[in-house]
Amino acid sequence: MPISEVDSVKSAASGDVLTYQSIANTANDLLSSFVERIPYFVAALIVIIVFWLLSMIFKKIVLKLLGKRSRHQNLVKVFQRVGGALIFFIGFMIAMVIAIPGFTPTKLIGALGIGSVAIGFAFKDIFQNLLSGILLLISEPFRIGDQIVSGDYEGTVEDIKIRATTIKTYDGRQVVIPNSDLYTSVLTVNTAYKQRRLQVAVGIGYEDDIEAAKAQIMQALTKVDSVSTHNEPSIIATGLGDSTVDLMVRWYIDDGTQANKVASIDQVIVAIKTTLDAAGVNMPFPVRTLDLSDPSVKAMVTMLNKQEADSSINTSMTSVHK
Fold first, then answer.
1. What's the rounded Cα separation, in Å, for the pair 281 and 215?
2. What is this structure's pTM?
């Protein structure tokens, strides 16, 4: 082998050795740096745990001091969650300063400033729900335990979080509604007031005395325990139907929850039906009168009679065959 080729092979081999050595040195430096930073990582983890415990203690203290005294329970929740999050954030920043060399809150703010546009677009809905959740907790249009209607969903409020509100429907399903929807859309709170008005329609015959029927219905309402005694029920005539005089019976219940509403309606209907039957008040069903002089009616009657006759013949033939 020529001397020049031998020299080139030696130089290549020495270059590979240098490369491997540099990689090994870099790895050793990284490992050494990591080992040196382990105590700082442990200290940062301890700081995070301590501040997390402090946030939990802060929430319990707030609940103990203000939970039973304050009428605005949602404000207590806001104070708990915002204060707890602030304490944990401070601990997180301290831990980052301890764990990462050269890290400062100013650098973090600068990094967030550079990416503020991208972050704003990416987290627009999240920030909107967070702000709506805080406003809902502060303004208190409803509380935990209230029964609300939002869009197609109706149920009992189980929890009001900063991002979303959880309700339990009457058939046992859980629905999570974004707070921005609750804050910007029409919302019905069925239990906002202690009393709630209910109503049912009752039809009596044209031959019955309306005032006498009203008196009987009022008597029936006095026998129902769920009917409130703080507000007097009312009965008004609302229309003249095809077969009945239509009355609207209205009354209040003292507890406007869905369960009491359903139970009260059932009790009132049963009581009205029983009382009117005992008093001999007619509650007719719809009646249709056919004018046999109308050609279309005659054709329909003829067709029905033919179908009935054919059915009778088929039944007779079946009996003969048997």
1. 11
2. 0.60
